[in-house]
Amino acid sequence: MKNVKGIGLLIVLGVIGLVASQALFIVSEKEQVIITQFGEPIGEAITEPGLNVKIPFLHKANFFERRYLEWDGDPNQVPTKDKVFIFVDTYARWQITDPLKYFETLGDEDGAQSRLDDILDGETRNAVAANDLVELIRSTNREPAQPDEIADIVSDSLQAINVGRDEIQEEIQKLANERAKDLGIAVLDFRFKRINYAEEVRRTVYDRMISERNRIADKFRSEGQGEASKINGEKERELKRIQSEAFREAETIRGRADAEAAAIYNDAYNKTRQARELYAFVKSMEAYGRTIDKETSLIISTDSEFYRYLNSID
After folding, report:
1. How many Cα atoms sit within 13 Å of 244 on the Cβ side?
2. What's residue 71's pLDDT?
3. Could you please report the per-residue DSSP string of 248-273?
4. Which among 6, 35, 7, 41 has a CA at the least distance from the CA of 22?
5. How far apart (Å, rounded) are the C-alpha atoms in residues 310 and 289?
6. What fold, for 69-197?
7. Domains of the chain by residue range
8. Which is nearest to 113 in space by CA: 94, 89, 126?
9. pLDDT given at position 74
């Protein structure tokens, strides 16, 4: 009998626990809940965290995120207003702002992601087709960072913009929210993740970039060669001037030295006979040294002036 009562108590406790688990539910800070009965929503959404009660087995608690959710678009090939085909890859952040509308129109996150694909991809295509490429890749007008002499060369790549990427992104987000206002969601942020040329035009763009950089390099190279020629010309002119002045100065010094030597020779020659003889002897010895070496043979007469000092040596 006691065993039967124990089993019965356990069954009652199990039923109570099951009913309690079906009747009680907890809403966390990151969640919001819609109560449904036979698939139809009942009452307002529960957005405050805490313990809540529902009718067990009759009501169902449907949980939805309160946090920011991510949408990542598929890369699409889209033509711009100036007929340039580009690949556009986008992403966005969104949030469930009205759980009741969200549940009634979209049902769950998969339905919301599919609907956002239609809205954001469509608005992206419209925005790209309505703007030139330069408006999509730049946000502000700016001056070239290169020196003034090549500013004209790169001016083509700094075409002025009227709208810019930031404003286009904001416009896409605004239009997307207008289309999603009855869906219980809001697009909080929208961005272009990547914009690139289509493969068939990418090579052409690279070739144009290479050509432009080669043109800039040729301009610098030409200016450098002109400057080098100018410097070399000034160098040659200065070198010839220095050499000319040095030659003139050397000739002046040599002339003064020759004059002083001649004066000394004349003075020494005119002083005395012995001095003149010594002078003649020294000059003759110098002449011998310049004329005669071990390999030299002389044929002279005995009365030659050149033989006079040789003949006097014993």
Report:
1. 6
2. 94
3. HHHHHHHHHHHHHHHHHHHHHHHH-H
4. 35
5. 13
6. Tetrahydropterin Synthase; Chain A (3.30.479)
7. 2-65, 69-197, 284-314
8. 94
9. 86
